[in-house]
Amino acid sequence: MAQAVNLVINKRQQRVTYYDEALPDGITLRMMQIPGDTFLMGSPETEVDRINWEGPQHEVTVPGFFLGKYAVTQAQWRAVAGLPRVKGRLNPNPSKFKGEDRPVEQVSWHEAEEFCARLSVHTGRRYGLPSEAQWEYACRARTQTPFHFGETITTELANYRGTDDESLGWSGSYGDGPKGEYREETTSVGLFEVANDFGLYDMHGNVWEWCADHWHGNYDQAPMDGSPWLTEDSEAARVRRGGSWIYIPRNCRSASRTYYQPGYRSGNIGFRVSCEPPGSLQ
C-alpha cells in the first residue's frame, strides 16, 4: 500500500492593490501592484529537479511595477487585436483551446510584443512583457520554496501533467507530492482560486509565459536591477516561464526557466503583461 503523504500548503489572506484597464468591447484587464523589493533569484543547489541554468542564485532589486492578475485571455486578446496595427498583424482567434476566459495561446513572442504595443498606444501607459527577474519575483511573492504555496504541488492547485510518462522519463509528482490528473488542455484563468501574496493566479502551470529577456545559459553577469537581459541579436531565443498543462510539475517551479525562438507558436505558450507604475491612476 502506498504511504500517505502529509501535504502542507500555505494559505493566508492578503490585501492587494490593483487597477482595471478598460479595453474595447467592455473587456477589462486587471493589473496587480507588485511592490518593489530585493529577492534571491534562481534555485538553490539542493532544490529537487534543479537545472544548472537556474543559477547561480543572486540578489536582484526589483522596482515596483504592475503585472496582470492572469495570463492574457482570449477575450482580452481579441479586444486588443482589433486596435490599430503598430508593427505586425494579429490573428484575433489564434488559440487551439477555445474559451473566452482561457489563456490565449498559439501566439509568438513577436505577437505578444505587438499586443503590448497596441495596448500602450490605446491606454497611454507603457505596457510590455515582464523581465525574467520581474516574473520570478512576482511568482515567488517573497517565498523561497519551489512553489509559492509550498514545497510541492498538486493538480488540485494548478493545471499541469500530473501523470507519469515512462517513455520520456517524466514523473507526475514532485518531491513528496502526489500524482494527479492530466487534463490535456488549458483551463480558464483563476479556475483553482489560488493566488499568491501579490494576488496573481496561475503562475504555476496552464501556459508557459513569454518574458522580455534573451536566453542566457546561466545567471553569470545577469542584471541586478530587474531589467531585461538583452543582447544585440533581435532574433535570439526568448525566455519562457511557469510551466504548462502539457509539462510535468518540475517545470512549474518558481525558478524553472527555458526558451523558444521568438517566432515559435504553441498551444501551451501564452503571456501576461507588465506595466510601469503610472504617475497617477485616473
Q: Identify the overall geometry.
A: globular
Radius of gyration: 18 Å
Distance between the termini: 60 Å
Strand content: 15-25%
> What is the C-level CATH assignment?
Alpha Beta
Q: Averaged pLDDT, please? A: 94
Q: By CATH's scheme, which homologous superfamily applies?
A: paralog of FGE (formylglycine-generating enzyme)
**Low-confidence sequence ranges:** 1-6
Q: Tell me the CATH architecture.
A: Alpha-Beta Complex
Estimated helix fraction: 10-25%
Broad structural category:
alpha+beta
Q: What's the tally of helices?
A: 3
Oligomer: single chain
Strand order of the largest sheet: 1-2-5-11-6
Q: Count the E strands.
A: 11
How is the CATH topology named? paralog of FGE (formylglycine-generating enzyme)
How many separate domains make up the residues?
1
Summarize the biggest pleated sheet.
5 strands, antiparallel
Protein name: Formylglycine-generating enzyme family protein
InterPro entries: CTDL_fold, Sulfatase_Mod_Factor_Kinase, SUMF_dom, SUMF_sf
Domain Sulfatase-modifying factor enzyme-like: 31-273
Pfam families: FGE-sulfatase
